Amino acid sequence: MTITTSMSRTRPLIGIAIAIAGISLMSWGFVAGIDAALDASRSGPGFFVGVFFAGAALVITTAVLAVIGLSRGEHRGLWIGSLALSALPAVAILVLVVQARR
Q: How far, in Å, CA of 73 to CA of 91, rounded?
């Protein structure tokens, strides 16, 4: 039994995977970067800042791919899910800012 997936369905799934990888890199780069910045025995947070921005680039790439996929009309549900995942870091930052002002 072989399972085939059309290429048009594979693209949004790849976008979702890229978004998850980007969010993971951003989270790890943020937390480890703060730890490295506060630890005086290390060389500093430079590497982790790079990791954070690499994750941010992946998340932005996912958002662009999702907009292109939605404009083409392919698998709208999967592309909307991909776009929602790429918006999660921005939503998390907004939640942190609102909580900090209380």
A: 26
DSSP string, 13-80: HHHHHHHHHHHHHHHHHHHHHHHHHH-TTS--SHHHHHHHHHHHHHHHHHHHHHHHHHHHTS-HHHHH
Residue type, 25: L
Neighbours of 35 (CB within 10 A): 12
Gap between the Cα atoms of 62 and 41, Å rounded:
36
Please list, in sequence order, all residues whose beta carbon lies within 8 angstroms of the beta carbon of residue 31, skipping any fewer than 6 positions away.
Answer: none
Distance between CA atoms of 74 and 2, rounded to whole angstroms?
A: 24
Per-residue pLDDT tens digits for 73-86: 878 888 999 999 99
